[in-house]
Design a protein that fits this description.
InterPro entries: Cro/C1-type_HTH, Lambda_DNA-bd_dom_sf. There is one protein chain. The chain has 75 residues and is of the alpha+beta class. The chain is globular and about 25 Å long. It has one domain: 434 Repressor (Amino-terminal Domain), CATH 1.10.260. The protein has a two-stranded antiparallel ribbon. The protein starts with a strand and ends in a 9-residue tail after the last helix. 51% of the residues lie in helices and 13% in strands. The protein contains 4 helices and 2 strands; from the N terminus they run ββαααα.
Length: 75
C-alpha cells in the first residue's frame, strides 16, 4: 500500500508505514505517546510502522491522531 508524496528533489511513492513513522517523529511523539493517544499497543504501532500490519481500523486511528487525512482520517 503506497500513497503519492511530492518531494522537492523528486517524486516517489512512499509507503504508509514510512508515512506513519515520519509523521509520528515530526509530531514529536514517541511510540509510547502515540500508543496512549490511539489506544493501540506499542507492538501494534511497531507492526504498522514496519509495514507488517495494514489493519484499516488501526490505520484510521493513527491517521486521525497524526492528522494524516490522506490515510483515511476524517476531515
Amino acid at each position: 500500500m503506497t500513497i503519492s508524496h511530492s518531494n522537492f528533489d523528486n517524486n516517489r511513492a512512499i509507503s504508509v508505514a514510512e508515512t506513519i513513522a515520519t509523521a509520528r517523529k515530526t509530531a514529536g511523539y514517541s511510540l509510547e505517546d502515540l500508543a496512549i493517544t490511539t489506544g493501540l499497543t506499542v507492538t501494534e504501532l511497531t507492526a504498522l510502522e514496519d509495514g507488517k500490519d495494514a489493519n484499516p481500523a488501526r490505520l484510521k486511528r493513527v491517521a486521525a491522531a497524526l492528522q494524516l487525512h490522506g490515510l483515511g482520517a476524517p476531515r
